[in-house]
Amino acid sequence: EGWRIRKNGTPFFITGSVSSIRDDAGNLIGFINILRDATERRDAEEKLVQAREQLAVSQKMEAIGKLTGGIAHDFNNLLMIIGGSAQIFARLLDPKLPRAIEAIQTAAKRGESLTRQLLTFSRHQHLSPTVVDLNASIKNMRTMIESSLRGNIVYNENIGDGVSPVKVDLAELELAIVNIAVNARDAMPNGGTFTLSVNAVTVDLDIGDNRLGEASFAIAFNDTGIGIPPNLLSKMFDPFFTTKEVGKGTGLGLSQVYGFAHQAGGTVKADSNVGQGTTITVYLPSCADEQITSKELSAARTKAGHSQRQTVLVVDDSGDVADVTSSLFEHLGYETIYRDSAEAALKLLEAGTKIDLVFSDIVMPGTIDGVGLAREIRSRYPNLPIALTTGYSDAAKAAPPNLRILRKPFDTEALRDFIQDIAASR
Predict the structure, then answer these.
(1) Which of the four, 132, 278, 310, 354, has the lowest number of CB atoms within 10 Å?
(2) Reported pTM
(3) Under a CB-based contact definition with an 8 Å cutoff, are residues 389 and 314 in contact?
(4) Looking at domain 311-425, which of 3.40.50.2300, 3.30.390.30, 3.40.50.620, 3.40.50.720 is its CATH number?
(5) How far is residue 76's CA from residue 324's CA, in Å, rounded to a whole number?
(6) 285-322 as b/e, with b when 16 or more CB fall inside 10 Å?
């Protein structure tokens, strides 16, 4: 086997054999040399090897995703208790303790960020996608991106003025861009240039169960850093994989980028040359046929607090989480009633108890989960608002699109905004 050159100068791959020709007496009288063009076969074999490697990577990522998704669900409940309790302590304890309380809250926020990145990677994060102008959204992030870099790094944007509509969770897009910017910063310890470009592209890629069609947008992030060796390039989107020193990175940043891109119906690619820098490209499908959603909230938002205290029914199988949730509601001026299952909540409503809002966890034991409870309430009590909360659940995918879901863990401010959004939309 080997390469040969055609008369026109193009290479082709051959398989060949040479055999001797002998007369009846056994004397060597010549040779037969047979060459076959095996270029197509070689190309097919190489594509098969690449496909097997991609399948192995996909299966590995899927297995890790299932593991991280399950862990993060329970971890978010713990963070809900820690963060919510810290807020309660801040209102009750001696004023000499604020620094300790602040440390607890900071740790809870850090844990929330880590689990959020884990869930996005595993594609189990409940997203709230809206159709946005990609160009305008990224331009609005300039200050945030520059603050993620360092003073000795020049930030350049190559973004057109046209409208580039994509359907994404804007918070997850921001997190993905920050994660890429931070990795670029760490790859340029002596300074350099970080360039973000947005371009309409024509691609045709299979992405798991999705297919990225021709109309797409590519967000390219280029740095002039140290680059990534070829043997590490295939691992860079793996969760917990990092080349940074212990304590300098979690290895979750780029895995969040991977999860965000795929959950948005796109994909992400990386190219790098050692000593010359790295380019990470996120591909997102175009939503040209959908209307861009205004990010302005309704002017009809209600103010926190009411002339008459309203009652919230808190439904959660975890008593500790329910205690924290009830305390946050009470801090906002609400009365609360607690039930530990959907069945118990429905019995309370059937008894005629006056409830102004039902706030339920999604994952609960029993025959009815939070989504099922929402369906029952909307059927029996159509004027009663209901909202759901979860740290992670595949059951959230079954929720009606007009049903509000608040991610755990949340604090008083997030809960207040959430309730105001519900009131403004009614």
Answers:
(1) 354
(2) 0.50
(3) no
(4) 3.40.50.2300
(5) 13
(6) bbbeeeebeeeeeeeeeeebeeeeebebbbbbbbeebb
